Each structure stands twice: as C-alpha cells, then as structure tokens.
Amino acid sequence: MGGLVFKTFAQLFPEDVSRYVRRWITIGTPFQGASRMIQGLLFGYNFKKPSAFINPKIIQNIQRVILPSFWLLPPKNCPFSPKVGVQYYRKKEIKWYGFHSDDELKCWDYDMLIRTNVILVIATLISNSDKYHPPHQIQHSLFDLIREIQHWQNEIERVEQETEESSTSYKWKQFLSPVTKYSDNQPQYSPYYSHYQGVKPTLWDNPSLEKIQERIEEIRSKPVIFPEVGEFEFINIYGSGIETPWHLIIHDVGKDDQKDDFHIHSVKELSQYCEYMSKGGEEIPISVSVSQIYSVWSMIDGDGTVPCYSSSNDGLRTDARFEIRGQDHFKLLQDPRYLL
C-alpha cells in the first residue's frame, strides 16, 4: 500500500521527487490491485490476525467505506480482475460478479489466458471444474451486489433489534398487567431497491462510488515522470511461489430439503452467509447448518495476498525487479535475500 502512496505522490508532485528522492524501493506493491479485497468487502479480511485482536466484522465495515480500499481494487483499464461467482441453491449455472462493466467484452479472465500459472483448489465433490472459469461476456456488477448485501445486513440488524425490543416490552407489560395482550405483528424487512431506481443507496452515497472511482482513475491515468537516468533508481521487489486467492466461488451444494439446512436462494440469504463469515464462522443470524455451502478460491501465483501479475506489473521505468519466492506478503521484509 505504501508503494501506491508514493506512486501517487510521484504522479502529483514530480518536482518534489526530483528534489528529495534518489532511490525508491517498493515491496509487494499491488500496482494492479489486490484480490484479497474481495474477501475484505464480503467477509472482512483481518490480515491473518487472531479474531480476538481484530474482529473480522469490524474490519469488514471499515474496508467497505474507507477510501484506501478503492486503491486496492483493479484499475478500470486492466481487464484481468478477480471475480465473485455465486451458485445459488438448485441452480446449475454460476452467476458471476466483477469490478468492471463487460459491455465492450474486455473482461478476459486471467485464468483463461495463462492456465499454466493457475492452481485450481476445488472441493472433491465438485467434478466439473471448467464452469469455475468465468465467461468472457457475462458479468454482473460486484458493487451492486455488495450494495444489496449491505442493505439486507442492515435490515437483519434492524429486525433483530426491533424483535428484541418488542420482546422486552412484552415481558414488561406482562409484569405490569397480566391481561395486556402482545401484538402478533412481527417486524417486516424493507424490500431492496437499487440506486438505478432512484433510491438512495445505503453504501457509497456521499461521495458516491462513481465519483470515488472517477477521481482515482483520474490520478492513475497521470504519467509517472522520474528524474533522468543516473539521478534516480526504482527497484521493485515482489513475492511469488505461494498460492494467492483470485476468484471466489460461493457454492451451495445442498440437494436435500432438510429442515435444519441453510441455503442461498437469493442475495438476502447470501448476505446472511456473509454475516456468518464476517463473524469468524462462529454465529449466523439464523440457527441453521451451513455445512453444504462452500467458499472456494481459484488460486494464482503470488505472495498469498498480492498476485504476481499485480506486484510485478508496475508499468514504470525500472532499474531492477527482484522476485523472492516462497515468502508470504508479511515475511518479505524478514527474508535474507531482501536484506542482501
């Protein structure tokens, strides 16, 4: 992330770079985004820290709204971007969600182009792995999906709070007057309306997501003008050799209508599953089993957090690039090869 900060500084203030900087060494910088942001936006990614120290739910709420998260998303001019696939209950096809609009058919899949660098991690019960490669032409908006998930999570919290308050009020009225009747009216979920229908969204409203993206892309498009050769050095160090999450597939494999099983029929149930995952898989808003739902990643080469295609693809005039294999994102600084 620090590498992106300096790159932005160099784009906005090239004169200051010429005056004060003679060498820039960047380590594991996600120049083309970090696929872990999918996990952050849906479940919360606490950087492998114990949940006792960093609650994933809190991290999820922070990562959804702070501006630095948007710098870790893939640039609009990069057609290779991680995607989310959801196979809803009893649906044969996977519905894919991505960061970019696919109107111009430019969202080619990185897995499709460089299959030799891809390691698919698929549960043994899944026999057809080809369908886990996203199609070239069909892609729904991941941001719209997250907006709807956020809406249903807010509704779940509201209904739970109202139910708890109603129960408390009922018990108090019973204590005061045993003949007082409790209303059978249960709190209702408000339906979801997209921002395309003229409804104010619950997420990314002020400033809007579109304005944030527009400003970030405006800065990203600025050239990086380094001082002349001999007066400035840029060295890019990145990690590789570790399976790094790429596409996320949420797969509901349930086949039996068992009363105690939870299934993802729509985005509403998907939001409950995300809530369950954001709490470390320890609790869910409904008392059911999620044993038939799997979160499966397709993996590519990287440092466990940033894919190689992103960290090595700086697009700048580079004096040297060093690849350190076998170390994850947080151990690169401890590697003797880096110190040498």
Automatic annotation (TrEMBL):
Instruction: Give the Gene Ontology MF terms in alphabetical order.
Output: O-acyltransferase activity
Q: What SUPFAM superfamilies would the database entry show?
A: alpha/beta-Hydrolases (SSF53474)
Q: Where is the signal peptide?
A: none
One of its Pfam families is: LCAT
Provide this UniProt record's keywords sorted from A to Z: Coiled coil
Question: What InterPro entries does the record point to?
Answer: AB_hydrolase_fold, LACT/PDAT_acylTrfase
**Record bears the keyword Coiled coil:** yes
Keyword Ribonucleoprotein present in the record's keywords: the answer is: no
Coiled coil residues, start to end: 142-169
Q: Which GO terms describe its biological process?
A: lipid metabolic process
Extract the PANTHER family matched here: LECITHIN-CHOLESTEROL ACYLTRANSFERASE-RELATED
Name of the protein: Uncharacterized protein
